[in-house]
Queue: 2 jobs
Job 1
Amino acid sequence: MTDTSPPFAPGDLEAEAARQDNRRRWLLSLPALIIIVCAATGPLLVMVVYSFLAPGDYGNVKWEFSTDGWVGIFLQRDIFDDTLMWADAHLSIFWRSLSLSLITTVTTLIFGVPTAWFIATQPPGRREFWLFLITVPFWTNLLVRTIAIQELLRAEGVFNNILISIGVIDTPIQLMFTNFAIAFGMTYVYLPLMVLPVYAAVDKLDFRLVEAAHDLYAGRWTAFRRVILPLIKPGIIAGSILVFIPSLGAYVTPRVLGGGKNLMFGNLIELQFGAGRNWPLGAALSLMLMAAVMVSLIWYVRVTSREQADD
Amino acid sequence: MKYLLSAASALALLATGAAAQELNIYNWGNYTNPKLIEKFEAETGIKVTVTDFDSNDTALAKVKAGGHGFDIVVPTHTYVPIWINEGLLLESRPDQMENFKNMDPAWVDVKWDPGRRYTVPWQWGTTGVVVNTKYYDGDINTSAIFLDPPEELAGKINVVPEMSDVMSLAILYHGGEPCTGDKDVLKKVRDTLVEAKKSWLGMDYGNIEKFAKEDLWAGVNWNGSSFRMRLQNDNIAYGYPREGYPVWMDVVAVLKDAQNVDEAKAFQNFIMEPENAALISEFARYANGIAGSEEFMPEDMKNAPEIVIPEELRSVGVFNETCPPDVQSIYTRIWTDLQK
């Protein structure tokens, strides 16, 4: 009896092809993987390691294991009577950043949605022009734009001069270095990030559906609430996430417009790496901020995937 | 500010690759006279790049992290022992340089660098209070201007966010010594600062414009910066708190990992020449510690109240010290409480 079976089973050939294919795919994605590991995961791991070390005397870290960085976020000993208590300074600073982010998100929504609606309902040729105008501020550095806002807000600035000349007030009101200044600056800086995704959603909106709603005796408000809003909701959520996340770590705008009197979370982190000389606490605080961002992203994924499941 | 810093340092890094003679200086912002740099470049043919920092801690953290590409740094004297102990400075021996003879003998045997083996004076000054006298005409030689502010000034006060200066002023106000670990004094200091902050408008650097345009009326400030404010607005006056005020000196040192050591030493020698030291002062408006430089200074500096300390207040100036780490950590906590 001779063996008549071919040297390779057809299945083997397929497996070999699949293996090669697989190898090629890995090889091709290698540059991307290297970038992800070196530029994202690697530094993050350094942060995690540093957050578990002891602070060096003049900055940097001592290579001793310590959980003080993490405990220090929430608990601290009173400077004067040594009782253990909540680190209310850190918590109130975190709350300030959180509420500022929420306010920024809401104000950009209030101004962003009508703007996006306006652009999307223009004749197609003109839309591009308006979109172009929305992106113009990105041509200038953030710091330059923020300092320019100071010129609007100062005692002899544009706002006060206009208000005085039309007779609303007699003496300049304090605008610079106030919470209003911070909210104003943040709204201005992040508004494009809200307008663009909402525009994309309104652009795709099928206006026949709105007409159908009117035909079925829906008033303007009902048509907006029951037909338009559900359809542009993904754009609104995406815009809110895009605004909320960077505002949470915002550093330059609150510092320049708020006068640096009250710390934001970003400034608190900076303090630990600078004058505070407590790098482990700074690393732990940064990771905390990342966790907060992750939570809002997970919430976003959940909400949108539920939407898709409903469809 | 961070964006500017990183962009500038990226440029500085790129610059080190070229072959021509170069020097990279890392100094405080708005502090280096362009005329001084031009003169140095013209005399030596060395191309100079100046990069700004906004606080001692920023400078220290950045240089410690490495890869900065700087040759010269200009820290405040309180930080010099840290820079030396951390092994960041080169012993460039200014005491053996040609122009060392010009250094005012009073500044040679200083505690932070005895005999001047590392550092050369850049400028020295005081931290006091600044007041716009149009809005307040009372006594300004007191820290009460910002720690227990008069009603006229409340809500228009800015305190520079320089932790060691502000803590020293507040501790001296309560009769303590700078760098004290005395809990009784520190408790009073914290309570006073927290209470006083309610009448502050800001805690920010770079305020010459804002004071000149009267967005700010009073605050903690440095003498030279106050001088520059007065040149733009006559109503501005500088006060030396009689409870005590910090005296400091910013110094020029060569970094241990400098790429251009000879050029850096040449610069140290260059600024000990009275004519050149005068250029430094002409721009930033502080005294400089080089004997004979007064001759070359602008006329309006010779009797300026910001430069010439009144006789009766001379003795209450205190040289800041480098605080030990445990005391420093208490100060950071008070500072965080203040800004929470």
Job 2
Amino acid sequence: MTNSSKILASAVVVLAVASGVYFFQGGSVNVAPEDAAGSGIDGVKKAEKYQGNASAEPGLEGADMQQLLQNDDFQRLMKDRKFVELMKSDAFIELSKSEAFTEVVKGDDFTKMVSDEKFSEVVGGAQFSELARSESFKSVIADPKMVQIATTKDFSAVINNASFTTLMKNAEFTELAKSPMFDKFIKEPVNIELLRSGKFDQIVKNPSYSELAKNPKFKKIAKSPAFQDLSKMEAFTTLMKSDGFVEMIADEKFTELVNDAQFTELAKSPAFQTLCKNPAFVGLMKSEEFMKLAEDEKFTDLISDAQFTELAKSSAFTEALKNDVVMDKVKTQSLNTLQSTTIPN
Amino acid sequence: MKRYSYIFSIFFSLALCHFNPENSMAQLNKLETKNLRLVSYDFGHKYLLPHATRSFENAFAFHKRLFDYNPSEKVTILIQDFGDFGNGGATAVPVNSISMGVSPFSYTFETSPAAERIFSLMNHELVHVTALDNSSRRDRFFRWMFCGKVLPDNENPVSALFSWYTAPRRYSPRWYHEGIASYVETWMGGGVGLALGSYDEMVFRTRVLEGAHLYSAQGLESEGTTTDFQGKTNSYLYGTRFMGYLADTYGPDRIIEWVKRKDGSSASYSSQFKRIFGKPLTEGWADWIEFEKRWQNSNLDSIRKNPVTEYKDLTDFTLGSVSFPQLDRKNNKVYMAVNYPGVVPHLASLDLKTGKLEKLHDIKGAALFYVASLAWDPETESIFYTTDNDEWRDLCVYEVKTGVNRRLQRDFRTGDIAFNRADKSIWGVKHLNGMSTIVRIPQKNKDHPEKGPYSDWEQKLTLPYGSDIFDLDVSPDGSKLSAAVSDFRGNQSLLIYHTETMDSKNMKVDTVFNFEVSSPQSFRFTDDGQFLYGVSYYSGVSNIYRVNLSNMDISPMTNSLTGVFRPLVLDDQNIFAFRFCSDGFRPVTIPNKVCKDVSAIEFFGNKTVAKYPILRNWQLSAAEANKINVDSIKTGEGKYKPLQLMRLNYAYPIVVGYKNFIGLGYSFNLGDPLGFNSIDFNISYTPKSMPNKFAPSTDKTYDILADDELIHASLFAKFQRVSISASFNNADFYDLFGPTRYSRKGIISRIEYTKSLVYDLPRRLDFTIGGGGYYGLQGSPFFQRVKNLASGNEEKKIDRNLYMNIDGTLTYTNLRSSLGAVDAEKGIRTSIRNLNSYSAGNLFSSFSGVLDLGFQLPVKHMSFWLRNSAGTSLSSEYNPFTRVGFGAFGNNYIDYQSSRRYRGTYAFPGIGFNEDRSIVAKDFVKTMAELVLPPIRFRHFGGLNLYSNWMQFSVFSSALVVREPTRNKLYPSYFPASEAFVNVGSQLDMKIVLFSLLESTLSIGYAEAVDVKNTEQRYKEFMVSLKLLR
């Protein structure tokens, strides 16, 4: 189906681990006698109390994990039923075991992207939440072919091209794209092959094209400056040759999606684009584990949840995904041990 | 044989199929060394485990040397986070085990000074294990004979004797155990502990100054730890002080010799005292009291060398424990949380002009000493406060104007709250996984406004482990946060955080002053933000200090004889504070002016350590401990599986009664080290040649012992929420005395599951479902008087030999009491039960319900109760399954169940079991009014090893209406359709303590009853009962 929706899928993953605008620094307090503001209190005789030798600091192991566990976002996360369910889901567990995932979440690109304020603004917004809940979105991110196209630099160039945006917003194009006539044309294997091969001159000989060519809307679009510009664009012609791209742009759901302002903002985000160039990220998007996760209802339910989106902005979340101990808990399905528990009474 | 096998198999199959006791224990982990089994359940505590292991090994090795201790087994330690403040508990009977809370200690009033808490707790709790587990040859012989250390069981009271033989030192008063533990812990910590405690010095200095009573060794246990506002803390105070005196007078080695249980030592702690110190303990104690008076008078003279601060009492009574007060300038009132004997802890308001104290609202889960943490919003006139202060704290708010009270956050585990007037947020300190975190609770929940105000929180600063923070305040402009901060050495400083920098890497913190081990407490900003006023034991006495924030100069404001706390600046002339008195804290005003000179006192512990430098060598080196490589001493690691770790704890002979015969047998107890699972099994034999001539029943059928009634067996097993019981010809120790009989011929089996639907103490809602099978019983398994009912046609509808029950009960309780109470003083207890019996293809159902309501009266510890119950059988058949019986107080002459059985649904004092009259009914309604009078506490009634604590009197009157339509229909001339009875009675209960721990209750009761419809039929009953063990 629609491949560019894979951009969205990747964005969704990123969304799910959204930006951290909140950083926390722990304080360290060492109180030694020399810290005193003065050596005594005037007028007060200090009571003498025996004090033995100074004690050594207790040797602890893994105490730094406590900074994460004490964090309010993290505590909320651990109580968020949807998050916990997702983390326990087979799909996420499998994903968490993949090297690509580990490499991505620990990478600088990922951290930069989730730290990007603009990105955070987009994915954290109510509109995006609404988008993520929409049927078009859900069906798009479930399409495994999307990532292949969406992670190419050509796609990035096309999606950010003003002409492409104009075309996608064109009501007549949208209507044409929905028409049975266009649907028939675009799905004919011979046409697909011809489009891919760039043999546009041969397409015009095809009877289904003839029918299309007579369509007033088609004529208008074909003559439009946007379309003209686009057809000259190298990236576009390259994309046309990609498997699935043609079907993608013909898909009304994709059209809906790219017409969404939030989506285009997301796609424009430099941080997101940088991440898309990251081979590990690309690898992750293409991985079977991710595909499976994207199809999991728990995943779509979670990312469309406004509360979760808010939580996911926090550094606690990104820290959690980067933390070996936490991910180990996920991989061994013992996430619940991170929650404070009590012995049954 | 087949039938009862069938019954057993059904119920045990149910038990096995429908639960897996290991499942809920799946998250328990253990780490083992040669001496230790360390159990934990939360990932968040993992960082502490290696340190806990090292601290254990270090302390254990020390105690083995000091006390010449040979452990009988490993010590099992549970690391837990059940409460917001650190605590610990230890036992060695039947197994060596410790429960250790990881939360920071409470620093209130410096009542528990300590170094790093795992280190301190380990040192302290292991003294208990050592003192209890250490053994002489005689103890070891009896441990071999009884297969372990016996825990007394009130169902087999002879077990108390065996317990004494296997662990005699267990039967010592609490002050003895806590005294030695606190004393040794102090020196193991390099002088940080109660033996050098400022609060301890203050308590005794105050009592001497006021001429207040200093408890005797026995008086401490009977009165001092129950009616005093300090409660059981008195055991620590007196015990540590007494140990300190003995160490100073005779040498530290002598107290070790006293506590050490080795060959040749006396089993009894008091006999051993005489052996070591050459005089009776009472005499030694009296010597200490005299010394203490001299010591404290000397300290008082030191303080008086400089002018002593004058104060003006605002009330003529003391308030027990008090929270930090909140000043309401507009209404000239002070709000605080109070906890004193006789009244349930509550929020109170004190009128500064009149001194009148008004109760505002009860506080659930008040803490000793600090009661609750409070903050005040002057604009909305709201008091924010914490509840469940010894567990996981909740945040609540009480609106003074409207009286509306509501909970804002549940289990938010935060206290030391302070209100920020600038943005109306609340700041506090959260305790989680043993860490202290400053949190901010914003007024508005921006993500979920529908949850209401103050429903969210933000992490601001988590201190490293070992550093704790307490007593927060926020400056009026919100820019500064003052706090007391301690480090792992026990040094405490007053710090000021700049709040706007708290989220950044360049957080700004100013150290006002390092008070070292003299805790800075309750420092609060003045309204103009120019000063901080608080207290410290810097001179050894708690005095008020003022910090000038412009130059950080500190000035003393008081020179107090006892101690002053929690100051609030009223105006330029006056400071509101609490002064310490023998019975608590009393509100006073003090002049707001700088003191010229403040004297210091001497600490008794200093004198001792100078005299006996050996105490310096008791200090454990944490650096040395850090060198212990846990991996090299580890012998095992994995999951703690209670079933796998179950073993025989002990076994001992028993004597039982069955009908009018005496039997002998054996009792066995098995369990895992932490007590999650347990099995008790008894087997006995009653030969026909051993009739019971002590208290035979008048029922002639009890003189007949069939051949199949000679063997008796019973089993009770508990696996977390599930309990399974089974018996064959159940015999009972208390049937030796009667008149209530528990023994039954036949087979009884039962499985029961209980779950708490609400567990928010003191509120709880429990659901219990159970099922039982019965075979070959003589009479109802529940009602002694309901037997051999049914005849003729009725017989065909039941099978006396085989029947089953299934029942379900829902019980809600919310009972509260005040300090010094011996019973609940107010609240509600209600339950509803459905019982279904199945026999001979017929099902018989019944319902019953209870509603008890209690009201605390204005007199201390006096309460009034209305106890109501009702029930109905849904069947008109007349047989043991459809009818209930009423009568008597219900106590046995020698008993183990509740001493106040007259409160039971089926009790009806006045009409005893031996009366010709029996009350059997299909439907009933009963109500009782009961007045419980305040207990009379005995300061000295008895000796060290046998004394009485208290005596309490109650009067009651009840009315019972019953219906029996079936019999009435068949025999209208003989059986009325309904009957009504009224009674009036009273009961006196006296608590008696044997060997410090073995509590018994002697009860004497008298009641008269009358048949309302036939007033000539009057009955009287006199009851005497001794309830053995708790």
